[in-house]
Amino acid sequence: MEYLDLSPYDYLGFTLPMRTVRWLGRRYGVQCANMAPMTGAELERLTAASWRLASRTLGWHDCDFCGAFKGNGEYHYYLPDGEIYAAPMMILHYVEEHGYRPPRELRDGLQAAGQLRWDRRAERLHSVLLDQSEELEFRCHAAVDLANWNDPRALDALRRAAHDEDLVDVAGDEIGRSLAAFVDRGLVRDLLAEGLHDMVRYGINEASSR
User: Fold this and answer.
1) Number of Cβ atoms within 10 Å of the Cβ of 14
2) CA atoms of 155 and 183, how far apart (whole Å)
3) Contact criterion met (CB below 8 Å) for 55 and 12
4) How far apart are the first and last CA of the chain?
5) Which of the 8 DSSP states describes residue 117?
6) What are the φ/ψ torsions at residue 86 (nearest 5 degrees)?
7) pTM of the shown model
């Protein structure tokens, strides 16, 4: 799959509009090669922001340029200005090994980023996660991305989702990984004592062991 940087995202269904970065291939090549190289600080910010994989699938994608790296899943970057950027998991490989340089919009947005304030994006993800009439695919995405907000409302929604049998059957581990993020941030202590489904516990344990 290949997109020009900043194109509208339409690879998989998603409940919020996103723009693409780093969907590279042979047709367009390594984009933004004429931009200034990333500084060490910019690379650190991009690496730190690439903390949680979303939209993981059953298949793997080989690097189109060297074939020596495989990727699966996406990083979603939620920026303070309201924009969301979607990049395949291999973005760091392309930056470090093939000279890819993310567009200025993403680089500047990451420089300005801090703790996200609860906004329309969070409200939408919160609503989708708890709405049993929504498509399970969208609810699974919301269970991953809502963890970007260090907010009690996000934690409460994920706790409730952890007891939704239909959702846990397909995304219990992802719910667990999201809950573990709140443990790491000190917003909650012992989640494993809450009588959670085995897959939710698995996701918590997997995230906590890293």
Assistant:
1) 20
2) 10
3) yes
4) 30
5) P
6) -115, 130
7) 0.90
pLDDT tens digit at each of 210 positions of the chain = 777 888 999 888 889 999 998 877 667 667 676 777 889 999 999 999 999 999 887 668 788 888 777 888 899 999 999 999 999 988 898 888 888 888 889 999 999 878 899 999 999 999 999 999 999 999 999 999 999 999 999 999 999 999 999 999 999 999 999 999 998 888 887 776 678 889 999 999 888 777
22 alpha-carbon distance from chain centroid: 14
What pLDDT is attached to residue 74?
92
Structure tokens at 44: 């650190």
In whole angstroms, give the CA distance from residue 119 to residue 121: 5
Query: Quick one: 79 exposed, middle or buried, by C-beta within 10 A (0-12, 13-18, 19+)?
Result: middle
Integer-rounded Cα radius of gyration of the chain = 17
Listed in order, strand segments (DSSP E) in the chain are: 19-20, 53-54, 61-62, 70-71, 74-78, 84-88
The tokens 């984009």 sit on which residue? Answer: 31
Residue 61, beta-bridge partner list = 71
Angle between helices 152-161 and 165-184 (to 10 degrees): 140
Write out the two tokens for 108.
């500047």
**CB–CB of 171/143 below 8 Å?**
yes
